[in-house]
Design a protein that fits this description.
By secondary structure, the protein is an alpha+beta fold. It has a single domain, classed as HIT-like (HIT family, subunit A, 2-Layer Sandwich), CATH 3.30.428.10. It is 25% helix and 22% strand. Strands 1-2-3-5-4 form a five-stranded antiparallel β-sheet, with helices on one face. The termini are far apart. The model has no long low-confidence stretch (mean pLDDT 97). Bound molecules: 2'-deoxyguanosine-5'-monophosphate (DGP). 2'-deoxyguanosine-5'-monophosphate binds next to strand 2.
Length: 114
């Protein structure tokens, strides 16, 4: 897989507003926020897309979601609610090909999405 802007953030080659880190996951604020809380949860071991994930990635995918949920809880927004999104490929609106979970919170989300 080619390197992406998220690889550069993980290696601290470019700055980001990092809000959470553990051995497997880095989370930082989205550059173009779509909600009062908009944080990206990124696996340090890059997977290009959800479509490229395999059963060997199951634990890592679970860790991403649990990290997002724990962060939302720590902010106090879990009770009101939030949205997690993984965009995949062109029709999904994916622009950075290093799998990531968007955590969006702090406003009411519309459904269906546009
Ligand atoms: P997606 O469309 O699902 O691939 O989301 C990519 C997101 O990444 C998009 O919401 C904007 C964000 N983004 C792109 N470049 C950067 C960057 O350099 N820094 C940060 N913090 N976010 C970025």
């Amino acid at each position: 897989m080619g390197d992406t802007i998220f690889g550069k953030i993980i290696r601290r080659e470019i700055p980001a507003d990092i809000v959470y880190e553990d051995d497997d996951v880095l989370a930082f604020r989205d550059l173009n926020p779509q909600a009062p809380v908009h944080v990206l949860f990124v696996p340090k071991r890059a997977i290009a897309t959800l479509d490229a994930a395999t059963p060997a990635d199951a634990e890592l995918l679970g860790k991403l979601l649990l990290a997002a949920a724990a962060y939302a809880r720590s902010l106090g927004v879990a009770g009101q609610g939030y949205r997690t999104v993984i965009n995949c490929n062109e029709h999904g609106g994916q622009t950075v090909f290093h799998l990531h979970v968007h955590l969006l919170a702090g406003r009411h989300m519309q459904w269906p999405p546009g």
